[in-house]
Amino acid sequence: MKKKAGKGPATEAKEQYVRTRNLFDPGSKEPYKLSRSGIESFINCPRCFFLDRRLGIGQPSGFPLTLNNAVDALMKKEFDIYRESKTAHPLMKEYGVDAIPFAHQDIDIWRNTRQGIRYLHKKTNFEIMGAVDDVWVKPGGNLIIVDYKATSTSGEITMDDEWKEGYKRQMEIYQWLFRQNGFKVDDTGYFVFANALKDREAFNKKLEFETTIIPYKGDDSWVEKAIIDVRKCLASNKIPSPAKDCDYCRYRKEAKSVSE
User: Fold this and answer.
1) CA torsion 207→213→218→223, rounded to 10°?
2) Which of 151, 164, 185, 209 has its C-alpha lying 20 to 30 A from 68's C-alpha?
């Protein structure tokens, strides 16, 4: 009996990076699912986005941020205690946030990365979706979008770093999604940073965190145009130009120049 050949490294790499699901088909009448991260990918580099969503050639995936995910899960459990009792978390009182965690029947759906909050954008036939970390509600009924972030830094935590522009867009897309679903949403959302402290004498099988709430006044006026631009990009048969600062495109160009 002839032994079946195993998969070589090249085959395994190809299977890892080639997208087979959720490719955009210009002729399809079915709504196309576009996530918040998909919009961010387009903003970062239209060429990489097109290669991924039209041709199925995705960027190499990073390693899962398991520690960050653990902090995220525990923070949700903690705020859920106050959601159930319909009272403010002590951290909200400390920072003067007049709100309580929003007790809505769909909160677990909105926080599920495979479901999230969704909206069918009729102009493009895109189903826009995003999974939010938390939602708080003010006494008057306005919602506050909240995003948890885990970090470890010795300096003051601010939203001024250039690489945090993606964080801001993330919140603004969530604000836009909730507004499209009929909710009244405050322009000001909050980032809850859990900062792992590195100045302790020893690890002792535990990490200690300092938690900070940082307000951010969002402006989602750019989201509509971005979605339309994504549609134009995907509907074209021309591969777009790369972003000037895209490391992936730069690598592909340099690798090609020395291998030909």
Assistant:
1) 20
2) 185
Note the pLDDT tens digit of each residue in 28-39: 999 999 999 999
Structural tokens at position 117: 């909050």
Beta strand ranges found along the chain (DSSP E): 32-35, 100-101, 117-121, 126-130, 134-137, 143-151, 188-196, 209-217
Backbone angles phi, psi at 7, to 5 degrees: -80, 130
Listed residue (211, 165, 206) closest to 192, CA to CA: 211
Q: Which amino acid is at 91?
A: L
Distance, in Å, from the CA atom of 174 to the CA atom of 170, rounded to the nearest integer, reads 6
Structure confidence by residue, pLDDT tens digits, 157-170: 999 988 899 999 99
**Which is nearest to 183 in space by CA: 137, 224, 215, 225?**
137
Read off the tokens for 43: 């903003």
